[in-house]
Write a structure and sequence with these properties.
5 helices; alpha/beta; 7 strands; globular; binds inosinic acid
Length: 200
């Protein structure tokens, strides 16, 4: 098993969730800020896999440390899968989380609750040597609420209600979200792989 894993992200919200998910393993989880690295990789691919691979590969090339990078999209059925791979810049290049939520709610105006199905999908790329990489994916189904609810989480959490819950992601604790989320499902598969592979 690898002893060190570098999270190829600058997103503090993701780091908190991923550290929680990889707790109780022997892997020393490092972040870019632990290494005093400021690297921004442009997410310009048109698939989650393409962006996750690009981020993990570029950071691996600079650090020579096994890296994981994840890319996530929110896919809304009534909008033909939008915002999808463009979730972070749905309302424009420098859009805030709030701008993106407002645009999504506006585009769904008039669509009744039964037709607001959506899912989050996360793809994790584990890059552990030149041209050696693997993908792990996780999906969480739910629907887009009529208005924002909750203060926790980040991104689209305040307007996404996971299946089987009467609260949005932003109304759940980090522990509750990590039991069911797209990112959790992908990282649990990744963690199981790391725990059962012995020669990485
Ligand atoms: P990224 O490219 O993986 O950083 O994700 C794209 C965008 O999806 C982010 O900017 C967030 O707006 C949103 N996003 C990613 N993960 C989550 C989540 O767990 N909850 C809510 N929104 C998320």
């Amino acid at each position: 098993m690898i002893s060190k894993l570098l999270l190829a992200t600058n997103n503090k919200d993701k780091v908190t969730e991923i550290r929680n998910l990889l707790m109780n393993t022997c892997i020393h989880v490092l972040t870019l800020s632990d290494l005093n690295l400021k690297i921004d990789v442009e997410e310009d691919k048109d698939t989650l896999e393409g962006n996750a691979l690009k981020k993990a590969e570029e950071i691996y090339k600079v650090t020579d440390i096994p890296c994981s990078a994840d890319d996530t999209g929110l896919f809304v059925n009534a909008l033909n899968g939008e915002p999808g791979v463009f979730s972070s810049r749905y309302a424009g290049e420098n859009a805030s989380y709030s701008d993106n939520r407002i645009k999504l709610l506006r585009n769904l105006q008039g669509v009744p609750e039964d037709y607001r199905n959506a899912f989050f999908k996360t793809v994790v790329c584990f890059y552990y040597g030149k041209n050696n990489f693997m993908f792990f994916e996780g999906i969480c189904k739910g629907h887009i609420t009529l208005q924002e609810r909750g203060e926790k989480g980040f991104g689209y959490d305040a307007i996404f209600q996971p299946e089987g819950f009467d609260r949005t992601f932003a109304e759940l604790s980090i522990g509750e979200k990590n039991n069911i989320s797209h990112r959790a499902k992908a990282f649990i598969k990744f963690k199981e792989y790391l725990e059962t592979s012995d020669n990485k």
